[in-house]
């Protein structure tokens, strides 16, 4: 009678392989581009001025947000935040950084998804892409739409 040998899980081996994957991700094209675009954005004067302005506006928005629509400046501040965000998105260095950030996030999601699926397709994997939640991997309630910020996680 042939007996099947069951391989005992060696946590050290699993962790070593995980660190190896992390090292590969650190040296990936997506990570290099992310770092490059972040550096470019951080040294862009126009971006710095707009980001500072946006952060001040965000603080004002957080203040009015505490009272919601009852605050007399709620709609004005909310509109100004949306306008400033659109202005930020038009700055080439910021747009390039956001694209690089999304590309890196996509890579991390896909690696996490492969690992999770190897264990069970029922395992949820967090994502910053709300489309993954719409594809059926999230909490199913529509949630926060961020794919993880509300405690839900997308597949």
TrEMBL record:
Domain of life where this protein originates: Bacteria
InterPro entries, A to Z: Bact_com_dev_regulator (IPR052767), Com_YlbF (IPR010368), YheA/YmcA-like_dom_sf (IPR023378)
Name of this chain's protein: Uncharacterized protein
Organism per entry: Aneurinibacillus soli
